[in-house]
Amino acid sequence: MINKLRIVIADDERPARLFLKNILQDFEDVEIVGEAENGAEAIEIIKEIKPDLALLDLQMPEATGIDVVKILRKSQLPLVAFVTAYDEYAVQAFELGAVDYLLKPIEKARLRETLNRAHERLEQTDFRRTDAANLKAVVAAYEQPADKTFLERIPIRLPDEILLVPVSEIVSVTADGELMHITNLQNKKYTINFRLKDIETRLDPKKFVRLSRSALVNLEMIARIAPMPGGTYSVALKNGQEISSSRFQSRILREKLLKL
């Protein structure tokens, strides 16, 4: 009898999840036991189902693949392989630790290697404690600033010109489907066709914080934060905007900003 590898897939893009599922279904030693469209869902599914392996997209709304690893306790962590578009720094970091990674578009032979590694690790005694410790260390290394550069201006294409909006003047960045709205201190709103999760990776995390699946704000532009029922917050910005934090992001907000 084949010892099947129990897998959870987490990716916010449905076509990417479907593509990965179709490949996995060709392998007889695999069972897909869960599917998440964001990091917050992935955390709950992993806690409940306790899979052998989690295939986590590195960039997801609400919580990234990195956040999933940070939030789960070592005893809750399965084996993890990060799925990512080309990210040289991520690849370097993961190669140094006991973490696997898959570059998009995923190749079947490369995925097979990942599954084989997972099988080998599951056969080792006390694999969970060792792998969880290594994974936490690699995540910490990945989050170090290193030489990573961030956007200083965002180009906005207008009918007859291209406007360069300084990132320091941006108050909020919000998503509406495939559109992204950038609002400045004078409450001027610019709309571009871009994904929020992609712009988030290019903004300095020390200067911008995610409040929900569809909103990022500039920390320097926060006027006040008011607690709301259910453990969430209402964040008032210096241009008069008010944005509510999701329950999940409120937990991260408390850890990052609201504790001495």
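Second entry:
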Amino acid sequence: MKSVQGDGARIAFHDQGSGLPVLLLHGFPLTSESFRPQLDALGTRFRLIAPDHRGFGQSGPASGPTEMSRIARDALAVLDALGIRRAVVGGVSMGGYAAMAMLREDAGRVAGLLLVDTQPGADDEAGKARRAQTARDIEARGTQALVDSMLGKLVAEDCDPAVRAGVEAMIRSSGPQGCISAVQGMAMRPDSRDMLARFAGPALIVVGEKDPITPPAKAREMSALIAGSKVVEIAGAAHLSNLEKPAEFNAAAEAFLSSLPATG
């Protein structure tokens, strides 16, 4: 992996392929390796850039809440280091929150959106309380707390056992402090519906049919905010549709990306 020095942390990232630049922002509590099926299958047609968020994977440690704007600025620093002016920005779950934060930071850098199993709303008070409890659980029990509480929601019950094992390994590889910082940052995120309503570029929204965290109804609500956007529902997938059903996801993503003009 390559790396760039961000504001107080080294940000490691994959940079694979050539052509239309596509920035991929991973979900919580995973790493950029969660995009391995896309790096392998789509990296022959597009330039895929997938960072590890601070506190995850090979990036430097997090300090204090990792706000979604912080992840967005780190991603922009990666694009700057690569000399990329504009890119399609894709994000899964928390990565989707960060993709929307990029619209706040510098909407001109976003050539298109690929929003996956995510939603634009801020946490309500009950949601913030759940985040705070999750942070306490991680502090007390480490990432085992996340395996116990999240694994069954991230992937469907009948998911390929190898995929389930890979997701669990990614969760266990994450440092507790990075996870706590990300949980705190997600609780602080603003509502992004206004940003989506103003976005004039192309957008594809992908959601797992069985996603219990951000279900298909959330995807349809999000699509209604973005003129001309399209929703693709992946049958049999839960919250990590790009990992659970890579062939179906990649086909939808490739069709969308192939329809866009080259940028960079």
